């Protein structure tokens, strides 16, 4: 797989849903460096998922712009953005084998059969699931299914991988295991990762930098050490200090 990261620039992005008193995302600006592991951290309802889904193209922007390597992606449909996406629920095709699930995005892009087989092998290797290629998703544990979802999301070498609480449905042991897998994938791929979580321990463990969300705004952006040692607001100090 290639080792190339792409930069993402979010400029003054706001999202107003009809009927809400305040914007779900309120004038957010953030620059994510090529190859960076960026985490959106904050309590439920703070706008993390809305921000991620605007990057993915699932939700439209009310105002502002989002650029990848300087190109404004706001007008592009999700499948034209070349971004990998993984959600809390794995959303694998239940009737397709693991290998076929991973092959699917490559077939959609019209890749030749022999090239697909090599790419699928490489992706299975990346998530250590070589032995599971012919199994159906229901024959795998939750953690394994999520690893398949990760493999499928990066197999076509997207410009970045976006993950929304990908460990949220797993028990503690599997969560710790998959956290290590995701950290290793990030090191090996050198890809830009954006990770959404409400769990500060997860954020502090995985991230190069963390953007702390509160009521649709970013309270502070910094490395785990910067946030922990120099929280800019009481909210950041309290949120990072909480244990859950
Ligand atoms: P988080 O991911 O931090 O939990 P969300 O981005 O899901 O937060 O939600 C931010 C706010 O936007 C919340 O008040 C939520 O209820 C609202 N919201 C999210 N999606 C929609 C939608 N499709 N329609 C209306 N309101 C929404």
From TrEMBL:
Keywords: ATP-binding, Nucleotide-binding, Transport
Keyword rRNA-binding: no
Domain ABC transporter: 8-240
Gene Ontology molecular-function annotations: ATP binding
Protein name from the UniProt record: ABC transporter ATP-binding protein
Residues of the full protein shown: 1 to 244 of 361
């Amino acid at each position: 797989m290639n080792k190339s990261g792409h930069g993402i620039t979010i400029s003054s992005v706001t999202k107003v849903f009809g009927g809400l008193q305040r914007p779900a995302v309120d004038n957010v600006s953030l620059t994510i460096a090529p190859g960076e592991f960026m985490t959106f951290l904050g309590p439920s309802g703070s706008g993390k998922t809305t921000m991620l889904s605007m990057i993915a193209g699932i939700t439209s922007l009310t105002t502002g712009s989002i650029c990848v390597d300087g190109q404004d992606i706001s007008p592009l449909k999700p499948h034209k953005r070349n971004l990998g996406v993984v959600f809390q629920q794995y959303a694998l095709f239940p009737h397709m084998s693991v290998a076929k699930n991973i092959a699917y995005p490559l077939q959609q892009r019209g890749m030749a059969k022999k090239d697909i087989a090599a790419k699928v092998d490489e992706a299975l290797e990346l998530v250590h699931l070589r032995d599971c290629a012919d199994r159906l998703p229901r024959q795998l544990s939750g953690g394994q299914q999520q690893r398949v979802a990760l493999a499928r999301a990066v197999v076509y070498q997207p410009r970045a991988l976006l993950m929304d609480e990908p460990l949220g449905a797993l028990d503690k042991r599997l969560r710790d295991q998959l956290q290590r897998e995701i950290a290793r994938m990030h090191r090996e791929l050198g890809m830009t990762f954006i990770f959404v979580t409400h769990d500060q321990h997860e954020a502090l463990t995985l991230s190069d930098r963390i953007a702390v969300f509160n009521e649709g705004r970013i309270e502070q952006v910094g490395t785990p050490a910067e946030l922990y040692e120099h929280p800019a607001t009481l909210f950041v100090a309290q949120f990072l200090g909480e244990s859950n």
